[in-house]
Amino acid sequence: MAAQANPGVLEFYLICYNNNFCVEYQINTIRHFCKDPHNIIIIDSNCGAYEENTKEKQALCIQYGVEYISMPISLAGGKGQNSSNILGHKLNWTYMNIILPRNPTYFAFLDQDFFMIRPFTIIEHLDKLGMWGDVMEISTAQSGSFKKTDIKPGPWVLHPWLSFYKLDFIRNYKMDWMPCENFDTGGQNWYNFISKANLNKADYWFRDNIIMYYPFAKQSDAGSPPYQKHYCSYQGNKFYGQIQINNGFMHFLNSHILTNPLHPKTAICRGMLDGILLANGFKFTAEHGYEIFDSPSNCL
Q1: Given 15, 51, 182, 231, which is the most exposed site by the fewest CB atoms within 10 A?
Q2: Domain locations in the chain as residue ranges
Q3: Fold classified for 10-209
Q4: pTM higher than 0.90 for the full model?
Q5: Is residue 28 classed exposed, middle or buried when 0-12, 13-18 and 19+ CB atoms within 10 A define those classes?
Q6: How many other CB atoms are found less than 10 A from the CB of residue 82?
Q7: Stretch 20-41: mean pLDDT, rounded?
């Protein structure tokens, strides 16, 4: 029987694949910035691959006192499945096999590289409006809004890379985080949930506030930086140079890069998070995963 969530607590379900930089910084940033009562669950989605990464992930969860759950090998994905489909299956498995049996009052899905960077509270909002997160619209010409003053009619959902829910708000719908035509991962929830619940898109809109930041713009030969088309190269590999500052969160995009600590994007991401944590009174100690040297008190 699955463990039961504590009533009134926000549970973070973090699906983590072959990346323990993200695991450690998710734990540290959520614990430091989330002001609601909360619980973190690390879900290892390696599905039998990357054995050393899984062992290290398990050790990190023990070190930090965080719950660890391993996904079955059957969710690894196969030939012909793209990353959006694989993630959709993993989100559905998490919802059906972990979230519903645990029965949390509130829960959140975050991409593993989507980090909290400011003091954050959301429970009062969830009690009022049922959910909060980054709105994703159908990818057709009649949609594609950006500013709240110019919201276009049309299908929409919350993108699972940043989404918070009160479970009772969605419990009676057949939630489905699979992609579908013209929608990325989570799009099926337009048909199964949003369109049936008759929700007002404007109540959930905050994309006006998203900053798309390109730290490698001068080094890139991709021209002007449209969304997710701004490539840089490192040791012969192309990667997205974009970083998003998203309403109190920072999304680094392409977290598979962050497995290499010497990769330039990993370095800037870690530097940004360390600077933010340091400026907000976070204690850099071995307990928090930092290698430090305590100088004698009489040294300048």
Answers
A1: 51
A2: 10-209
A3: Spore Coat Polysaccharide Biosynthesis Protein SpsA; Chain A (3.90.550)
A4: yes
A5: buried
A6: 11
A7: 97
